[in-house]
Amino acid sequence: MRVVLTGAGGFLGWHTRVLLQAIGWPQAVTLPSIELNDPARVASRANGADLLVHLGGVNRGAESDLVQGNAGAASALVRGLRQCPVPPKRVVYANSTQAGNGTPYGDAKAEAAETLAAAAHLGYEFDDVRLPNLYGEHGRPFYNSVVATFCRQLADGGAPEVTGDRELDLVHAQDAAARLIGAPPGHAWDAAMPALRISVSRLAERLSYFAATYRSGEIPALDERHAVRLFNTYRSHCFPQLFPIPLTCRSDARGNLFEAVRVHGGGGQTFASTTRPGISRGDHFHLAKIERFVVLRGSAEIALRRIGHQEVVTFPVGGDTPVVVDMPTMWAHKITNTGSAELLTLFWANEIFDPTSPDTYAEPVFPTATAPA
């Protein structure tokens, strides 16, 4: 499956690349916006592709920027596709439900869709996917969505600023990515793009509850799919600055006691492992699962790296001063015994492990090859 992406460096582009990796498809060929105006470069990248997903676009800015970043980008892409000896089999456009609504942005998105549809005579199947409001991990505040903006304000210790209340239909970016690439059914994504219908004021209240509960390491009530994904979105704005979270230890003549996990609602699974000196556990990532590490005995290092990025974040941890470190979704992570004795670690996950659908994808924290930026 040869996939070509425009806009691969953006919010939805990153989520799409992560999903491609999770389902085991080859790494996508990327077409940066700066290369769209070079028809020969577009043709060389897109020639013979099974799928070209056009994610590139501009959401905010002056009217001229919106026109050029959307309608202009589609026209440039078509100029390149005309030079392909073997055009892509399918071209999928990440359009918007605002297309054609009379605003500069909406009209530019509609014009882009018309341009791509009109060029389908070149030999590709065209799919115009109209996406609602998207949210998800590592969204750009004040640009991608109100969810990202509220999460950033709360993570910085502030409060969401609701300037106009209205109803929203929110779809997680992984679900949108699954729809765009035609992903097979999976545990952590849904190509049907189930939407959360919620008002802006209610969204602010819900995220504020997550922030207030999680500040001390407690897990809020996560009673349905969108609650987990909204919480994971908020957590992405808290990492790494919130961690490690110290645990309160109560001591008496009998010994020590501390609470490792306090969940306000929802299921979960707790398990423990021992690890020999110098040995690591992990080197994988999750798309939706929440996972917590607490070292009970010994010393260790927890290392994490966001998928598609280079920087590795590390936390030295030990049983003498127990702390909580939660694994953010879509970050490769592992724990390594750095001591000379056996390591005892407590793990908690928000869902019961299902070996047929584990939401666990192999990825080294320290890759041997250069990871895509």
Automatic annotation (TrEMBL):
Residues 3-178 form the NAD-dependent epimerase/dehydratase domain. This is UDP-2-acetamido-2,6-beta-L-arabino-hexul-4-ose reductase. It comes from the Bacteria. Residues 251-361 form the Capsular polysaccharide assembling protein CapF C-terminal domain. Pfam families: Epimerase (PF01370), Polysacc_synt_C (PF14667). It comes from Micromonospora marina. Gene3D superfamilies: Jelly Rolls, NAD(P)-binding Rossmann-like Domain.
